[in-house]
Design goal:
Elements: H1 3-6, E1 13-15, H2 24-33, E2 39-40, E3 44-45, H3 46-51, H4 54-58, E4 67-72, H5 76-88, E5 93-98, H6 103-107, H7 118-131, E6 136-144, H8 150-162, E7 167-175, H9 182-185, H10 193-202, E8 207-211, H11 217-223, E9 229-232, H12 234-238, H13 241-250, H14 259-275, H15 280-284, H16 297-307, H17 315-323, H18 330-337
Parallel strand pairs: 1-9, 2-4, 3-4, 4-5, 5-6, 6-7, 7-8, 8-9
Helix pairs in contact: 5-7, 7-8, 14-18, 16-17
């Protein structure tokens, strides 16, 4: 099978669920950058869905499809109820978080610590799978703390596979659950791609997606020769135009928008959100890295950061930020004004 043909499937490239980052505004922005990648929400707990404002927690824009809801929890009944609500809202996939190492998650006994108790995860999985028609998947680490071996990972995956799970998104680092912050857990434990490759070799029937340390297209091409999909996290957030480049790489016929065009396409959405009472800074914080590596990128970031939080801030702040950019950006300003 031709590699480029295989990767046109949106499930080959996905954007990682990132707490406090991949909210609905971020996802709308990323969908403009990549029409085909799979988007994941930041983690929502089953308990929050059980007790909170479901409409607010599960809200998304229809343009975000294909989109997966990531759920955190350890109670089969509550996880199943949350999965059913997610299906009612139209999510394309439900992903169980078995990878987050934060103190809040550990105290609630879910996230990465559940790798120690795969039977509990399997019970949640079976109950959820039987209750919904959309795919239910797992996102996990390659290990936790001193459980740093292929055998530990394989035992976890085989237990869930026996329960019916066929797709695993594997963050290729162990999680350190004591004495290391979630931020450090995303970069300090060394990557171990070979453990993920071995998992795929020994379980070819499973769909294995690799997450962690993906930074360029050449690397993506190489990884897709050994696993089924690639999930991109911080690189997509801090250098969002990377998503445009990936889309164009796999779909060269796609009309590749420039950065200024992406800004223009965001403006109607921003105006709509502002009219509903949202603050500009809640949206533009996700756009700060759009011009990363380009002339004027620092001025763009500075102008937004210094002005998007002010009372009454509107799209004029964004247009003024574009004015700080080189001449290439001025055409976008003229088109918008017209």
């Amino acid at each position: 099978m031709n590699l480029k043909q295989a990767t046109t499937d949106h499930r080959k490239i996905s954007i990682a669920p990132m707490m406090d980052w991949t909210d609905r505004h971020c996802r709308y922005f990323m969908r403009l950058l990549s029409p085909s990648c799979m988007l994941y929400t930041e983690m929502v707990t089953a308990a929050a869905i059980d007790r909170g404002d479901v409409a607010k927690l599960l809200r998304y824009d229809e343009s975000e499809h294909p989109i997966a809801l990531q759920l955190g929890g350890n109670d089969p009944a509550m996880m199943t109820q949350a999965a059913q609500r997610a299906e009612e809202f139209g999510y394309d996939e439900i992903n169980i978080n078995i990878g987050c190492p934060s103190d809040r998650v550990i105290s609630g006994q879910f996230g990465a610590c559940l790798m120690r108790t795969p039977d509990i995860v399997a019970a949640c999985y079976r109950s959820m799978r039987d209750a919904v028609d959309v795919p239910v998947t797992i996102k996990n680490r390659i290990g936790i703390d001193d459980h740093d071996s292929y055998e530990f990972l394989e035992n976890f995956v085989e237990t869930l596979s026996a329960a019916g799970c066929s797709k695993f998104v594997v963050h290729a680092r162990i999680a350190i659950l004591g004495g290391m912050s979630p931020k450090d857990n995303r970069s300090v434990p060394p990557l171990n791609y070979e453990r993920v490759f071995r998992l795929k070799r020994e379980h070819p029937e499973l769909e294995i997606v690799l997450n962690g340390g993906v930074q360029d297209i050449e690397q993506i091409d190489e990884l897709l020769q050994q696993i089924d999909g690639v999930m991109i996290g911080r690189q997509a957030y801090h250098h969002p135009y990377f998503l445009v480049e990936i889309e164009h790489h796999f779909r060269p016929e796609w009309p590749m928008p420039d950065r200024q065009t992406i800004v223009e396409r965001m403006l109607p959405y921003i105006e709509e959100q502002l009219a509903e009472g949202e603050r500009l800074s809640r949206i533009t914080r996700h756009m700060l890295g759009l011009f990363a590596g380009q002339p004027g990128a620092r001025a763009w970031r500075r102008h937004l950061s210094e002005n998007d939080h002010k009372d009454g801030a509107g799209v004029g702040v964004i247009l003024d930020a574009l004015k700080t950019m080189p001449v290439a950006a001025q055409a976008a300003i003229a088109r918008t004004a017209g």
